[in-house]
Design brief:
Pfam families: MmgE_PrpD_C, MmgE_PrpD_N
CATH superfamily of the largest domain: 2-methylcitrate dehydratase PrpD
Organism: Aureimonas glaciei
Mean pLDDT: 97
Number of helices: 21
Shape: globular
Order of helices and strands: HHHEEHEHHHHHHHHEHEHHHHHEEEHHH
CATH class of the largest domain: Mainly Alpha
Strand content: 5-15%
CATH architecture of the largest domain: Orthogonal Bundle
Number of domains: 2
Family: Belongs to the PrpD family.
Number of strands: 8
Protein name: MmgE/PrpD family protein
GO molecular function, one term: lyase activity
Radius of gyration: 21 Å
Helix content: 40-55%
């Protein structure tokens, strides 16, 4: 196989994918992915990040044809993709493809639900497009990870734009040539820096990927051309943005090896690498009971990515707290909390949390798996209690059940749209594949003005 065929082969597969060829297990995972994304989009809808983004975007919005999920406002499709991508990621509670740390649904679902509001799209066609988009972005991510990520790119934004283009292109009925162009148009808009973690820009990345990917598909539909080798060319995406290029990860086993079936869902609203520490600290809290007040020190032995990504020792905002393993361990021990309430400005500035946070020490150990942690708690009387978490809850080895995903959905959405609307929306999400028109799901998410 020549490396000049990658973009075209991926485009051909994306256009030709038959819904009947997708295994039932992968389709079921696609529904779980959508339900989880929808709950996160509603849950984040009233965050100040979304408020500010909406205020900035409204003067430039076109016809109000698409719902801002979880809010009363409607905007044009491209701005809805942007805003819903932001809201679905702002709580850092969304899905994760653990092989690449891509959050797959944000760019893809945000784009195609907005686009589906202007044309009749069945749940079955929507689900097929969602799975195709996730497969594309995760395979492209696999081809450059970890080098691309290590260089400082936020892979959800950089690879997610391809997923949004692929999924939107499916809904628009692009030809193989047009899909190839769409991937090129997506590639030239790919961006997002890890430097932005802990700021509002982190959630802007999947939102912008959704918006840019959808725009790429619309441009390609109008025969706006691009390079036919945008991914693999010497000055194309993979060679410019990474020192690793494994094109077999993109095209080998298409239709037989499904990255979309490997998605996972966060039980905690923060960076995925912190989850083992929160899981372990919650277990220790249950064991210690009132003796949590007697903790003299907490020692964490973690994978090196933990301190690299979440080493903020003194966060001052809730968004920064999501990238502090020290804050996360302290609030899990004190309150047993890893939900969005653990990462508010108020909780980060809680004197009790701050005092315990200063007692948490973390060291990197390359022998510790990414979803594992070793924890040692020493009490004031000298007693030492140790715990090893080999796989955090929410990992492929300990996946969230449908019931847990539903509970997470309701917990997030009830404060935003109320109990009745939340339960009804959750039921619509689980019934996605049988829906005649998925635009009804977006409308059902609307908060009362």
């Amino acid at each position: 196989m020549q490396d000049t065929e990658i973009t075209r082969r991926l485009a051909a597969w994306t256009v030709g994918l038959d819904a009947e060829a997708i295994p039932e297990t992968v389709r079921a995972e696609g529904v779980r992915t959508f339900v989880n994304w929808l709950g996160c989009a509603v849950g984040g809808a009233r965050h100040e990040t979304v408020d500010r983004a909406l205020a900035a975007a409204l003067p430039f919005s076109g016809p109000a044809r698409a719902q801002v999920i979880g809010r009363a406002e409607r905007v044009d499709e491209l701005h809805a993709a942007l805003l819903n991508g932001i809201s679905s990621h702002v709580l850092d509670y969304d899905d994760t493809h653990l092989k690449t740390i891509i959050h797959p649904a944000g760019p893809v679902a945000s784009a195609i639900l907005a686009v589906a509001e202007t044309r009749a799209v069945s749940g079955r066609d929507f689900l097929t497009a969602l799975i195709a988009g996730i497969e594309v972005e995760c395979r492209i991510g696999n081809s450059v990870y970890p080098d691309h990520y290590d260089r400082g790119w936020h892979i959800t934004g950089t690879a997610g734009v391809f997923g949004a283009a692929a999924a939107t292109g499916r809904l628009l009925g692009l030809t193989e040539l047009q899909m190839t162009w769409a991937f090129g148009i997506a590639a030239t808009q790919s961006s997002g820096f890890r430097e932005m973690f802990g700021t509002m820009c982190k959630s802007f990345h999947p939102g912008r990927a959704a918006q840019n990917g959808a725009m790429a598909a619309f441009l390609a539909k109008a025969d706006f051309d691009s390079s036919l080798r945008a991914i693999e060319a010497p000055r194309g995406w993979a060679n410019v943005l990474s020192t690793k290029q494994d094109y077999g990860e993109i095209v080998d086993g298409l239709g037989t090896r499904w990255e979309a079936g490997l998605n996972t869902y966060k039980p905690f609203a923060c960076g995925i690498v912190i989850h083992p520490a929160i899981d372990g600290c919650q277990q220790l809290r249950d064991k210690l009971g009132a003796r949590v007040a007697d903790i003299a020190s907490v020692e964490l032995r973690t994978h090196p990515l933990v301190l690299e990504l979440t080493g903020k020792t003194a966060p001052t905002t809730g968004l920064e707290g999501k990238f502090s393993v020290f804050h996360s361990a302290a609030t899990a021990l004190l309150y047993g909390d890893g939900s969005p309430t653990a990462f508010t400005d108020e909780r980060v500035r809680d004197p009790a949390v701050m005092a315990l946070r200063d007692k948490v020490k973390a060291t990197s150990d390359g022998s510790v798996h990414e979803d594992a942690v070793h924890i040692a708690v020493t009490l004031t009387d000298g007693e030492r209690i140790e715990l090893h978490v080999p796989h955090a809850i929410g990992s492929l080895e300990r996946p969230l059940s449908n019931e847990a995903i539903g509970e997470k959905f309701v917990t997030q959405s009830v404060p935003v749209i109320g109990e009745v609307a939340s339960r009804a929306l959750l039921a619509m999400g689980w019934a996605l594949e049988s829906s005649d028109d998925v635009a009804a799901i977006a409308s059902a998410s609307a908060a009362q003005a």
